[in-house]
Amino acid sequence: MSIDTDLRDSMLKATPNLRAFAISLTNNVDRADDLVQETLMRAIANIDRFQPGTNMQAWLFTILRNLFHSEYRKRRREVEDADGKYAAALSVQPDQMPHLDFEDLQKALARLPHDQREALLLVGASGFSYEQAAEICGCAVGTIKSRVNRARNRLAELMHFEDMDEDIGPDRVTLSVMHAVA
After folding, report:
1. pLDDT tens-place string over residues 13-44
2. Last residue of a domain, one of 48, 83, 118
3. How far apart are the C-alpha atoms of 97 and 175, rounded to whole Å?
């Protein structure tokens, strides 16, 4: 791609000011030089968008500024991890078990009597107070509390829960693998 000599000269003339601006933005000479180089490369690649007779330096400063902000947004989301320690410490629980647990919960909920299921879903899942649930169901607060308690006990029985702390969440094998990785 050939570029008009006057355009090339005006780009070269603006380069020291671009570099000074880039240094003031980045506080790093090497990053500033890279930013100026990328600016000039983008300007040359898009020279057909430059309108002759307008201010070349202002056009280049706009490109540099936009590049800097794009790079800044990208770097904000990145974590510097040159030695790989951060990445090695990351672990994710497998998602198969929660999916299967949810299916088991749905099946167990379907086996509850309607009044118990309704009370449990109003209080446990929807976040209503016992008083609000009682008003919705048209019964006494004590009745709702009793239904919720019986529903919870029956769910634990249907799902074969013995110790809630150990039966809910990742199993021991998954936990040991995740802690060994970390």
Report:
1. 999 999 999 998 888 999 999 999 999 999 99
2. 83
3. 13
CA separation for the pair 113, 154 (Å, rounded):
10
Q: 22: which 2 tokens?
A: 């880039």
State how far the Cα of 75 lies from the Cα of 32, in Å rounded to an integer: 15
Angle (nearest 5°) at CA 108 between 106 and 111: 110
CATH (domain of 132): 1.10.10.10
With DSSP H G I counted as helix, E B as strand and the rest as coil, what are the percentages for the chain, rounded to 5? 75, 0, 25
CB distance 35 to 22 below 8 Å: yes
Domain span at 68: 1-83
